[in-house]
Amino acid sequence: MIPPQPAANPAAADAPRPYRSVLYIPGANERALDKAATLACDAIIFDLEDAVAPEEKPAARAMVAEKLRTVDYGRRARIVRVNALDTAWGRDDCLAMAEVNCDAILIPKVSRPEHVEAVAVLMPDVPLWAMMETAVVAWHAANIAAHPRIQGFVVGTNDLAKDIGARYRPDREPLLTAISMCLLAGKAYGRIVIDGVYNAFKDDEGLRRECDQGRDMGFDGKTLIHPAQIAIANEIFAPSEAEIDLARRQIAAYAEAEKARKGVAVVDGKIVEKLHVVAAGRTLAKAEALAGL
Ligand code: COA
Ligand code: MG
User: Fold this and answer.
1) pTM for the full model?
2) What is the mean pLDDT of each run of 10 residues along the chain (293 residues)?
3) Percentage of the chain surpassing pLDDT 90?
4) Is residue 284 in some structural domain?
5) One domain, residues 57 and 34
6) What is the torsion angle, in degrees rounded to the nearest 10, for the CA atoms of residue 195, residue 197, residue 200 and residue 206?
7) 141 and 87 within one domain
8) Among 236, 260, 278, which residue terminates a domain?
9) Residue 120 Cα, ligand 1 centroid: separation in angstroms?
10) Centroid of ligand 1 to alpha carbon of 238 (angstroms)
11) How far is CA 243 from CA 15, 116, 284, in A?
12) Which ligand has the shortest distance to the CA of 47?
């Protein structure tokens, strides 16, 4: 059964904090951990999971904890990806991160709401995010999104492709059903939803294509693996000048129509209804939030 939607969600995807560019940093890479404090990304994922070799796990955990205590990451959201609780490291990761300042914990390989609940019990105070990256998760996505501690989803397209046995294609068609089910569930509950990484970090054109696709689908931003990818994600997941201009004109035209007791306006040969005005308002709020960075 699909649980009811919350009436109001303080962690709504409309919240002004941007998540256009969400950069992974391997937790054992000190140089990259320091460099991140100077990069133009909106959020950082301090990774203790797949980007860290088993023998480096305890050292990476200690280093990330130390950096979170001592480095000023400014406005960037600090998200720590812990290891899953069914591994040898997950519980210690959670306990160590409960002692430091971070903005959210990202739980890997979530398949069911119980995986979220287990971390929620260990870490009562921090917002939780779920990696949506197993073949089964799409079927449970709404129940995971409904968990009251969930603030965001990251779609893990690499693990998802591995689990399904899907091949990489530039249009991502083989993954779109699973990706869309996770996106729909997250959006239905007002969660932040971030797209998967683009592995070919020197291929700007390919990254642009995937960012365009993700933005058009409704994602709030893209996870990234390299600093060179940040500017492209920041540009594509921000409203363009043309979108801002259109939003202003839609709002103005609708206000005029209302004065004339009409429920519909026309801008550039297209109708504008109340719902378009709501979307236009979101576009302007996002643009204003970004202008204030
Ligand atoms: N975050 C912050 N800084 C990073 C970075 C990252 N993810 N990736 C690279 N950098 C830094 C490097 O430290 C280097 O800094 P420097 O110029 O001060 O020495 C600079 O950016 C240029 O790096 P470059 O030499 O082009 O990359 P690389 O060959 O060292 O590393 C990768 C390439 C892909 C191995 C590396 O970017 C990486 O580890 N990415 C993250 C992978 C990850 O977290 N995966 C898990 C989720 S999918
Ligand atoms: Mg993964």
Assistant:
1) 0.95
2) 58 67 98 98 98 98 98 97 98 97 97 98 96 96 98 98 96 97 98 98 98 98 98 98 98 97 96 97 95 90
3) 93
4) yes
5) yes
6) 10
7) yes
8) 236
9) 31
10) 24
11) 19, 37, 9
12) 1
